[in-house]
Here is the input.
Amino acid sequence: MSIQPSITAAPARSLHFAEVLMARESITPVDAGCQSYLMYKLEKLGFVCERHTINGVKNLIAKWGDGPLHFAFSGHTDVVPPGPLEKWKSPPFSPVVSQNKLYGRGAADMKTGISAMLAATERAIASLDEREVTYWWLITSDEEGEAEWGSKWINEYLTKCNVQLDMCLVGEPSATTQTGDTIKVGRRGSLSGTITVAGKQGHVAYPKTAVNAIHKASNIVNALTHYPFEEGSDDFPGTTLQITHMDTGSFTDNIVPSAVRIEFNVRYSWQYNQGSLAELLRQIISSVDMSALVSFSRPCEAYLSKPHNNAKRCLITSVEKAIKAATGRYPVISTSGGTSDGRFYASEKTQVVEVGVPNATIHQVNEHIHLSDLLTLEDIYTDILLNLSK
Here is the structure.
C-alpha cells in the first residue's frame, strides 16, 4: 500500500527546503548537489562560501559576519542507503507529505535539521550584528560513513585558519517524542578492539597435549565483561563493554583450536580518553594472558559540554530558553546515543549542543517526522539565532 500525498501542506519554508534536499539521492559520501543548493541560498544571504572535496567527501564552509562571538551550525547532507525498496510505501527519494507527516530518506536524519536552520537563518539574519557575531555553516557529506574527511577535516581546517568556535549547534535528531523534549550536550566515546589469543592445536581426546585457545579467550572475556567500570549518572551514562564477535577459523569437532580472535566495542564516559582507556584495557587483558595481542580501531572521543559562566554566551541556556518559548516546556538534557560529529568540534572553549527532530525512525524504512516537529524546530533555531545579538 502506497502513501497518498496530502492535498495541502504547511506553507513553511523549512518544508520546501526539506523536500528539495530529500529529493537528492545523497548516500554517503555522495552529496548529489545538496551543498550546491545550500551554497546558492546562503550566498544570497551574504555568506562567503568555500567548497572542499577531500578524498571523495564534499565539505561546505560558509561564513557570515566578522564579530568576536563565533557561532556555528553543523550538519550533514549524506544519508544511509534506503534498504529494500519494496518495503517503502513511497519512493525514499521522492518526499511525500501524508496525514501531516513527511516521508522519505533524510526526513529525520538530518535533512530537516538543515532545512529548519536555513529557514531560521532567512528569518533571523537581518537582526544579527555582523560586528558582534561570526556565523558559520559547517556541512559535510560524510557523517554516516567513516567520518575521516568530513567534520573532522573541517575542524582541522578551521584550526589552521586560527578560528576558535565558541558555540556549535548540531542539527542531529535529538528528540524522543516531540521536537524540543530532549537535547544532547555530550556523547560517550567509542573504541573497538581486536584481541588475538594463541593456543596449541591438538586432538580433543588428548587435552593435556594441547592448549585450548577458546578456554584462554573465555578467561579474557570474563575479565573484560566483569571489570567494574563506573556506572555513570543521570547526566552521563557509564562505560560499557560488549563482545561483538569471536572467531576460531575453520571448525572441526575433534580438534582443539589453536587461535581465537575476539572483537569488542567499548562505549566510554568523558572521564576517559582514547589513550587512558586503551591502557586500562591492555592491563586487564595482560593480567589474564600476557601473550594475547590487542589492537584498537574506530576511535571516537567522548565529550561533555558544560554551562558557560557568562549566561549570554551559554549555548545550553540559550537552547533551553528557545525550547521553552516554542513548546512551553524545558528539555531533558541527555548524553545518550551513539557518536556524532559534535565530538570533532567540542573542546574546553567550544560548547556543543545537539537539537533536532525526533529520532524514532532514523535509518528505518519509511523514515518520517510530523510536520509540527519541523515547524517547531524552525522556531527554536530562529530564537537561538536572534539571541546571539541580545
Q: What stands out?
A: The two ends are 51 Å apart (CA to CA). Residues 4-11 have pLDDT under 50 and may be disordered.
